[in-house]
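User: Can you help me understand a structure? I only have the sequence.
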Amino acid sequence: MHKLVEVTLGGKLNLAPIPENPKRILDVGTGTGVWAIEIGDKYPSAKILGNDLSPIQPRWVPENVKFEVDDVEAQWAYPEKFDYIHCRFMGIAVKDWSRLACQCFENTLPGGWVEFIDLDLAWQSPDGSLTEDHASLKFNHQFLKASRNREMEPSPGPLLQGYLKDAGFSDIEHEKFVWPVGTWPADKHLKEVGAWNYLQIMEGLEAFTFALFTRQLGYSHEEVQKICSDIRKEMKDPKMHAFFHLYVALSPLCGPQGSHWALLTRAGWCLAM
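Assistant: Let's start by predicting it. Here is the structure, written out as tokens:
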């Protein structure tokens, strides 16, 4: 997924104009830590902190990069604010998105930036070649419904701008990118994006299917394996043209909402949530 996002963004690690010589950067839900490590190499003057519930990050990292096990939905208690907060792919991991955005607001320095990156996982087709008869689309509908039944939003991408606005950010940029499923697009860039997307779905299908479908929907392991097999078969068909979207929402903490009084007011509102 990391490489896929990098290709999507034209080789960039982020779209926000991180302040020159940043001192503190936070990577929310850092996962494997690969983004935090690369941003640490890019900004050696900055202290990079990556947090996650799972301690799956490598032990040997740049001196300016640190990882900690933490629940991002708990109350944050950082002693200093951050120049830049990066939050990527937290769908199906966060229950209270409004609170998460609010804590980002509280913990960003005036003049700093917050950047959220996430997906709209609803599969679509530009030409009707993906139909209700496809196992891929049936699976997609079931996956989204089951996730929401667990009070998790699997497609927070289109909602990111609203979360940031409600938290107090005002000058928000919101961009949408197409993620083709496979190399069917004629456009060279989209073809490359589609190739990486095809790879990550093919390799990760069971990983994000088994637990949800067996525990939430009552499928047997054999039934899930059959679904995954059918999806892979359809994905290899060049006549099926499917895609979904990646969203990026970013905003600086500036203007009236960056004032001391506004920060105190917003902090009080967040604590009351």
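Now, to help you interpret it: The radius of gyration is 20 Å. The chain is about 35% helix and 20% strand. Let me know which part you'd like to focus on.
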